[in-house]
Amino acid sequence: MRQPFGCRCTTSVRPAIIRTTNTYKKDHCRMTEAVANLATQPTEVVRKVRKNNPEKTRESILQAAITEFVQQGLSGARVDAIAERTATSKRMIYYYFGSKEQLYLEVLVKLYGDIRGTESRLDLASLPPVLAIRRLVEFTFDHHDRNVDFVRIVSIENIHYGEYVKQSPAIRQMSNVVLDTLGKTLRRGAEEGVFRPGIDVLDVHLLISSFCFYRVSNRHTFGEIFQIDLPDEQVKQRHKTMICDAVLRYIQG
Q: What is the pLDDT of residues 119-174, one digit of tens each?
């Protein structure tokens, strides 16, 4: 029996519409599940990003290690804690650095490199000798004051009798470059008659570093015993002027 025209259309098209709707719903559900899975897997995403940025990963581990070594020392520091700070794994840390001791050594190299690298960019050779010395002293004072982590790590290394510094030719090389620059400045000053001749460059370096280092490394004990607020801005400015004048008077004779 022939069906009416309208009925034929309804019976043939409706199943197709239903199938299409069901397919859309299934595809939509799959897409929703995929997005949800991606949102709930941040670790995998982070690891993929870090895998593609090895230098960034290495720097992140170093920064976390600085914090851990500063707070706990070499003996008390734990690789587990460093891994937690970076959301990475112990295996990744050992992959990049080999051991906790090697990571500590790399931290020393980084922190010494930061101060030595900036010192080398002071361009002391372009300044008159007196201004060059003043710039170097002021920089050393400010760097120690702003980088307590460097002071703490060096203090920790001295507890270990410089055992790890001995293993780093890079630290010695960086420091020798700074001594060379300071020595040239002293010789220029002597040639121009503003500094006395024959000054030992290491003595001058020690004079500058010792004061700048001590007021940070001992700020808590010194400050408590003598009731002085070493971080106070007026106190800092007075001490900065004092060490600049002391160094210049010593080398001018």
A: 989 999 999 999 999 999 999 999 999 999 999 999 999 999 999 999 999 999 99
Cα–Cα dist 62/82, whole Å: 9
Helices (H), 121-192: 129-146, 148-159, 169-191
Is the torsion defined by CA of 220, 222, 224, 228 positive or negative?
A: negative
SS3 (DSSP) at 176: helix
pLDDT tens sequence across 79-114? 999 999 887 889 999 999 999 999 999 999 999 999
Q: What angle do CA 113, 117, 120 make, to 5 degrees?
A: 145
Q: Are 151 and 217 in contact (CB under 8 A)?
A: yes
Q: Judge contact between 96 and 58, C-beta under 8 A.
A: yes
Helix, strand or coil, per DSSP, at residue 203: helix
Q: Which CATH class is domain 107-252?
A: mainly alpha
User: From CA 131, how far away is CA 192, in angstroms rounded?
Assistant: 13
pTM of structure? 0.76
Domain ranges, ordered by start, for the chain: 5-40, 107-252
Q: Which residue has the tokens 């600085």?
A: 66
171: number of Cβ within 10 Å: 20
Question: Are residues 147 and 115 in contact, defined by beta-carbon separation less than 8 angstroms?
Answer: yes
Burial 175-184 (b: 16+ CB within 10 A, else e): beebeebbbe
